[in-house]
């Protein structure tokens, strides 16, 4: 009896253990199946997402190809338009150049005819006649100045190598000659010129003589026009940088005129701009002088700037590199 009970118990225990083992493996397999199923679903979702991204990229690529085709067409149109603009610019430049050169010769002849009358080279004239002839002479000079400014504006769009003839320029002698040209208008307003040149010999600057003359004439002309009667205009040359790593000189032209307002300071180098106070004092003017001066100095490798307060005059500075062989 005892033996039969003992023999049954181990079998029952074995069945229970086997059941637990089967249950455990079943649970593990179920878990692994669910995990694999979830992973498969995740892969399917990712594949669908990738397919959507690929489709989106294909659409973007098609849009880009269409855009590139449109851009190519626009580029072709712009290229043709640019070529047309260059042709029109060339035609304009030729017209301005021919017109200004055609005008300069007769205007110069008229100017010197007036000059001969004013200096009694063609006979004595009365004070009244001289007054009217002086007005004609001054008007002719303004016309010549405007023609020169138009020519300078036309040249400003060209490369310096095309229209500039750089060489060694003796700055002191150039300034003295220009001051002599402005002696009469300065004397008519009792304005005194003071030229402060360096005590030692100044080396020549690298410049286009004709273009540099335009700059100095514009700046000195403005100083005379906008200075009060009995004032003083100072022209100075600073040679402190002649032996620096970038040798240059600084030229300054100082007046005691109307000065520049805050608004004028922002626009003074813009083409055709004239400050209201300048217009009220001197109605005639093109508003091109300072714009031209800035362009010319820039193409010389220099800089131009100013210091001014309204009612207290102005001083314009510009630099020029020295001439080096």
UniProtKB/TrEMBL annotation:
Listed transmembrane segments: 12-33
Keywords, sorted A to Z: ATP-binding, Coiled coil, Kinase, Membrane, Nucleotide-binding, Phosphoprotein, Transferase, Transmembrane, Transmembrane helix, Two-component regulatory system
CDD domains: HATPase, HisKA
GO MF term list: ATP binding; phosphorelay response regulator activity; phosphorelay sensor kinase activity; protein kinase activator activity
Keyword Membrane among record annotations: yes
GO biological process, one term: osmosensory signaling via phosphorelay pathway
Enzymatic class: transferase
Coiled coil: 54-91
Domain Histidine kinase: 98-324
Catalytic reaction equation(s): ATP + protein L-histidine = ADP + protein N-phospho-L-histidine
InterPro entries (UniProt xref): BphY/WalK/GraS-like, HATPase_C_sf, HATPase_dom, His_kinase_dom, HisK_dim/P_dom, HisK_dim/P_sf, Sig_transdc_His_kin-like_C
The protein's Enzyme Commission number: 2.7.13.3
Pfam families (alphabetical): HATPase_c, HisKA
Protein name, entry field: histidine kinase
Source organism (scientific name): Candidatus Vogelbacteria bacterium CG22_combo_CG10-13_8_21_14_all_37_9
């Amino acid at each position: 009896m005892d033996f039969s009970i003992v023999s049954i118990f181990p079998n029952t225990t074995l069945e229970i253990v086997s059941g637990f083992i089967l249950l455990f493996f079943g649970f593990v397999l179920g878990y692994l199946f669910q995990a694999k199923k979830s992973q498969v679903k995740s892969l399917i979702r990712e594949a669908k997402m990738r397919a959507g991204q690929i489709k989106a990229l294909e659409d973007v690529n098609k849009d880009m190809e269409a855009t590139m085709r449109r851009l190519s067409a626009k580029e072709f149109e712009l290229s043709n338009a640019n070529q047309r603009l260059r042709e029109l610019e060339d035609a304009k430049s030729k017209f301005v150049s021919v017109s200004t050169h055609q005008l300069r010769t007769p205007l110069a002849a008229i100017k010197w005819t007036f000059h001969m009358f004013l200096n009694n080279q063609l006979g004595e004239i009365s004070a009244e006649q001289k007054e009217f002839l002086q007005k004609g002479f001054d008007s002719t000079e303004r016309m010549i100045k405007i023609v020169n400014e138009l020519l300078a504006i036309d040249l400003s769009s060209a490369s310096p190598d095309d229209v500039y003839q750089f060489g060694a320029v003796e700055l002191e002698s150039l300034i003295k000659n220009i001051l002599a040209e402005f002696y009469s208008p300065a004397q008519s307003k009792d304005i005194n010129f003071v030229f402060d040149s360096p005590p030692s010999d100044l080396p020549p600057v690298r410049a286009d003589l004709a273009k540099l003359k335009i700059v100095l004439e514009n700046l000195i002309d403005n100083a005379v026009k906008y200075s009060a009667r009995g004032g003083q205009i100072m022209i100075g040359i600073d040679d402190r940088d002649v032996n620096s790593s970038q040798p240059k000189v600084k030229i300054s032209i100082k007046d005691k005129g109307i000065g520049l307002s805050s608004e004028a300071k922002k626009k003074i180098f813009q083409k055709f701009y004239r400050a209201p106070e300048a217009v009220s004092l001197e109605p005639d003017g093109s508003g091109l002088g300072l714009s031209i001066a800035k362009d010319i100095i820039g193409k010389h490798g220099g800089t131009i700037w100013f210091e001014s307060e309204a009612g207290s005059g102005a001083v314009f500075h510009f630099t020029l590199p020295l001439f080096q062989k």
